[in-house]
Amino acid sequence: MEGRFTAPGKIILFGEHAVVYGKPAIAIPVSGMRATAWSEPGENGITINAMDVNKKIKLSTDKNQFSVLAQSILAITDRQEPNLTINLTSKLPQGSGMGSSAATSTAVCRALSGHLGVDLDANEISELVFEAEKIVHGTPSGIDNTVVAYEMPVYFIKGQNPETFEPGKLFRLVIGDTGIEAPTKETVANVRKAWQNEPGLMEGYFDEIEKITRNGKIAIESGNAEQVGELMDENHELLNSIGVGHKILEELVEIAREKGALGAKLTGGGGGGNMVALAEDKETQKKICEAITEAGYSAYQTSFGEQV
Ligand code: PMV
Predict the structure, then answer these.
(1) Which of 77, 83, 97, 164: disulfide with 273, CB 3.0–4.6 Å?
(2) HEC secondary structure over 244-273
(3) Left if phi > 0, otherwise alpha if psi is -120 to 50, otherwise beta: which for 90?
(4) CA 167/CA 51 separation, integer angstroms
(5) Higher pLDDT among residues 135 and 248, named by residue
(6) Tens digits of per-residue pLDDT, 137-156?
């Protein structure tokens, strides 16, 4: 068996949906939840063994995120298809805004390039995974593959070089899962319909979100958690206005705020999926997490920025 290759999940702190329309967004890696891939000798070319869903994908017969990715890697490295099984497992829930598809693709990309002895940098990995993301998400902005491949907070504008940045302090988050799968492809398509029907109104919302994201970056860099929280609340309202809210997301946001969150918002595509809340300290973080769990949902604590 060769080495294990991993990639983190991610969440979007500011700017989802608006990012599809050229606005900036901020995403952070969730390093504690990862996809893992490792390779072993196989036969008849490459097989991706997606262990969690009990599916074996062959390059020659299947077209999905992994076969597209593997074909691209072989093409850019000018290699013949090796006889190889790449095993894949992931701790990330699917279709819930945590970057599951980007993380699994990145882990597979690292395992295959590792086997081929090819050294790919974060930007090359991100670009390869972007091709695979298009298979899953239709017209993704590219934020997921960027934050997952770099494993750093990123300030992202579609079509521009991603900017990684350093938070001014440790930020503590709770992620609450509605348990409702809401494919990003669908929520993005719904927002597009709304934009086609009322471009002026929707672009007004996107402009507001842009201001929040810009201020969010400054607040994160200067370590101003209170302001980050306020901006998260504002971003959440705007996401409701553009039509990607859900009543269970509201319930989770309410629980988090009641337990003392500095701010809370839906994260990612919305329409279900996950909520993210910011906590001032470890105790509040734990309280929010427990309250969400007691209400019958799964919750997860994570953090980003420097350790204090
Ligand atoms: O649901 P997620 O976390 O994959 O995020 C989707 C983010 C969107 O802005 C809604 C779409 C995109 O491609 O950026």
Answers:
(1) 97
(2) CCCHHHHHHHHHHHHCCCCEEEEECCCCCC
(3) beta
(4) 36
(5) 248
(6) 777 888 999 999 999 999 99
Q: What CATH number matches the domain at 171-304, 1.10.150.130, 3.30.70.141, 3.40.1170.60, 3.30.70.890?
A: 3.30.70.890
Longest dimension (CA), the chain: 58
Sequence-ordered alpha helix ranges (H) in 47-121:
65-77, 100-116
Q: Can you tell me which atom of ligand 1 is nearest the CA of 102?
A: 4
* Active-site residue flag, 52: no
* Nearest alpha carbon, ligand 1 atom 5: 268
With residue 85 as reference, give the H or E element that holds it: strand 84-90
Among residues 52, 62, 119, 144, the one annotated as catalytic is: 144
pTM of the model: 0.89
Is 5-164 a domain of CATH 3.30.230.10? yes
For ligand 1, say whether the CB of 144 is within 6 Å of any of its atoms. Answer: yes
H-type helices in 138-246, by residue range? 143-150, 184-197, 199-221, 225-241
- Reply yes or no on whether the pLDDT at 71 is more than 80: yes
With a 6 Å cutoff on the Cβ, whether 242 touches ligand 1 is no
**Ligand 1 pocket, residue 133 CB under 6 Å:** no
CA distance 269 to 249: 12
5-164 and 171-304: same fold?
no
State how far the Cα of 188 lies from the Cα of 144, in Å rounded to an integer.
14
* Number of helices and strands in the chain (H, E): 9, 11
C-beta of 19 in contact with ligand 1 (< 6 A): yes
